[in-house]
Amino acid sequence: MSRERLTSRHLRLFDSQEMAVADRAAVRDGRSFGELVAAAGRAVAAAVRQHAPPMQRIAVLAGPGNNGADARVAAADLIEGGWSAEVYAVAADAAARPIAFFDPAPYDFVVDGLFGAGLSRTLDGEVADAVNRLNDSRVPVLSIDIPSGVSADSGAVLGVAVKADVCITFERRKPGHLLMPGRALCGTVHVASIGLPDAALDEAVAGRPSLFANEPPLWLSQLSRPGSSGHKFDRGHATVFSGGATQTGAARLSATAALRAGAGLVTVASPPSAVLVNAAHLTAVMLKSCGGDGEVDALLQDSRRNAFVLGPGFGIGPRACSFVSLILRAGRRLVLDADGITSFADKPNLLFELDPADGDPKLVLTPHEGEFARLFPDLATLVDLPKFERARRAAVRSGAVLVMKGADTVIASPDGRAAINAVGTPWLATAGSGDVLSGIVAAQLAQGVPAFEAACAGVWIHGRAAEYFGPGLIAEDLPGLIPRVLAELFA
User: In which residues is AMP bound (predicted)?
Assistant: First the structure.
């Protein structure tokens, strides 16, 4: 599904239970199960025609459940159209060969219809052997719904899993399409409609916590655009705290990103020992000497300073905790990252009590997995929980919006909403990348964007900018790409 056609409704991710409820609701309201299977099978066959070499040999792997039924319909549709399609089934019959006989070598393309979103057990035996043979070959694969062996709910691999080039799923994407390691096994994901009524889909998710793919329709309406009669103070003033003289680069990366991402003014608050170092590198970003609590208090006297970043290169210790306390008790918005997070490792509840529960959170936490474990050690051990559920519980406990970074970054709000990022590139795994992200999020906070939407937008802009650059990316490249992303968003 192209970004141009996406709406916030389409961004809602459905887990396996929710999809099962939607199917049952559709059947109850007049759609037959056979109609749904036929529609799914036709959609699979159409996807094969789009992605496979014309009129070549196709192997179709069919499981014992609904996924297998879809696969068998697709095979019949292809054969009727003149394609050569042979079915290998877990439950073999006169129309299908046993899965144990499957050898990918003679085929040009394979349809994986073994197991879909409902899989809850580990693949083993003849099925696992067939999957391993398929993965060892170079034959292109289209998986129905999700690669067999991947949990649709968590992205976990259940023993062994198909590595697909293309997935075709139905009505809505599943969490496993976006969560690692499943995300890396899905290839390109296409969403096809099989005629489930909107009412059935709505019934399936009624009263359940919302989980979305993080894409622009989720938050674009909340972003700020400069008005023709506006001025820089309308777009907020972000302040980024710097580390000492040999640890200034991270703060400057964050500050530059905040300015590029739309903050009207940005200041680096530097310890006296680092003022000259920072001054040698800053132009449009302003500079202020700030060595202790008194200077932070002075900054907070200016109500126009409405968003802060603390953590990148700052240093770990009580000074960080004190600054954070002053900022949050003053009711200002704060992105806390890196050293700022680690400074609260032995007293996380002190941090969580600083953000008043008055609606929109003031605090955005941006931990990677290691930093997450320092603040939420018990949640970090719950590895069987999907990443979004661990992040959601952490957001509820802390009262903060949580950005749990990684190849499958998750953003979670204390109100239960969560989103899994849908863009990015492995080249983002580079020093300083997280500092840039903090600045982009702070820019949205400075402009008055609600915290959850500010975090979602920041994560997406960050990932999209990296996509524009590609291989060889370093953190310094990212701020200069932000205007291109904003132009795309506001076009």
Answer: 405-409, 434
